[in-house]
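Hi V.,

You were right to ask for the full record rather than a summary. Here it is.
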Amino acid sequence: MDDVTLSGELPTVERDIITITNVYAETGLRLNTNKCEIIMEDFSKLDEIDTLKDFIRVDKAEMTLLGAPVLKGCAQDAATKHKIDDLSRAIERLTLL
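Predicted structure:
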């Protein structure tokens, strides 16, 4: 298993994270908290939750799932700009052939 997405109210997600962490001996699955993201609009409640303190904080407007933007807005604009940059670089390189 490589990627997991959890969703729900903050206490529910926290319990799910604790469950995943506690069953490591049985499943062999471990969270790489250096790569874990918490996606929210308001991060003020996170300061009270030790379980999620090392997670990368991502604003909901910038949310992506497996590299694809989920919502219209900042993330979609960034993905479009990235594609335009890739195409521009490809055009420049084609002139060298």
